[in-house]
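Quick check before the chapter quiz. The format below is the same one you will see on the exam, so make sure you can read both the input and the output lines.
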Amino acid sequence: MFNVGDRVVYPMHGAGIIEAIEEREVLGEKQSYYIMHLPVGDMKVMVPVNAVADIGLREVITKEEIPKVLEILDGETEKMSSNWNRRYRANLEKIKSGDIYELTEVVKYLSVREQEKGLSTGERKMLENARQILVSELVLAGNKTEEEVRELLEQTLQNSTATSE
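Here is the expected output.
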């Protein structure tokens, strides 16, 4: 169970801070909800307390884990299927997993592919979404601004593609 003030990640939406735990009646049923504020995008979401395991809500990584994320962004790009549909589904599964390292692999792969071959509209949206989720977690993990994190990611990705050419 999480507490008010905890920094958590909601897969597919991003990282936020639990601001309250409230009992609400939804569709005639009373339930406890985490009221979460997602700073990147300035959104509020309600997460049913009893559905946390199914949703995959987890704590934000520690500051000490950030270098591993940057290492993945700077590392080799894994080979993906040339079939758009298979590739899209594989990347979507990684994002849905809620695992920051799998999410980072998606950002890395799609960023490299965008530079090399361009992306379809669907993959471009996926990259924007994955990048937003990654940024939101790194903002909370590193106590940095959104701009600082975006700049760090861009620099790391540029260095990575420059050294692989």
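If your answer matched, good. The radius of gyration is 17 Å.
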